[in-house]
Design goal:
6 helices; 0% strand; 207 residues; mainly alpha; single chain
Length: 207
């Protein structure tokens, strides 16, 4: 079966390394080019202007593909485990996969529609990516508890639960603050109206 083939575990590791590299490289280029401030910029700000916009879009597209592949492998693993243990309704696993893939589509939208070019599409993609990602993480921690202790250790369950809680705590105020900002731009002046909300949104996004 695909999910148990040798080397498949390399895909999630590649996803983490590639995505981290995408954010770091575009951030460094944007800062060195004077396009963003070094302190907690929006992730999207570091991929808005050329040349970093091309690198950001290319690498995030690949991250979205690797994310979808990782989620599909996770789906197959849970499906196989559930066949022998019957610890959950199979439809829950399928719904979790669909929500995860929706988040990957959101990532693709963010990568291909820059923040300043088509802000409404970009923001919609970001909302889908972050929202679906948090729901996916939460559902995965629920599945982990359902399959514990046969297929997961209690430590793994609690780690996933902690990640889910932190994600929820971060994404809710991020969306709330972002919705109150009426201007889409990357050059902000200290003391300008909306700059405090912008900083709060950036901090929660980075979490």
């Amino acid at each position: 079966m695909l999910c148990f083939m040798p080397g498949v575990a390399f895909i999630p590791a590649l996803l983490v390394c590639w995505s981290s590299a995408a954010f770091i490289i575009s951030y460094v280029i944007a800062v060195l080019g004077g396009h963003v401030e070094p302190l907690v910029p929006y992730i999207s700000d570091t991929g808005t202007k050329p040349p970093e916009s091309g690198i950001f879009g290319f690498m995030i597209n690949i991250s979205a593909f690797l994310g979808a592949a990782t989620m599909y492998i996770r789906y197959l693993i849970i499906e196989k485990q559930n066949e022998s243990s019957n610890f959950m309704n199979p439809s829950c696993n399928l719904i979790t996969l669909c929500i995860g893939l929706l988040g990957c589509i959101g990532m693709g939208i963010v990568a291909n529609f820059q923040e300043l070019s088509v802000p409404s599409v970009h923001d919609g993609g970001a909302l889908v990516a972050f929202g679906s990602g948090v729901v996916y993480i939460t559902l995965q921690f629920v599945i982990s508890f359902k399959s514990c202790p046969q297929w997961n250790s209690h430590c793994t369950c609690y780690i996933r639960m902690a990640i889910s809680i932190v994600s929820c705590i971060a994404v809710i105020p991020m969306i709330a603050c972002a919705s109150l900002i009426s201007i889409t731009k990357i050059d902000w002046i200290p003391g300008e109206k909306g700059v405090t909300l912008r900083i709060l949104t950036e901090i929660h996004e980075d979490f």
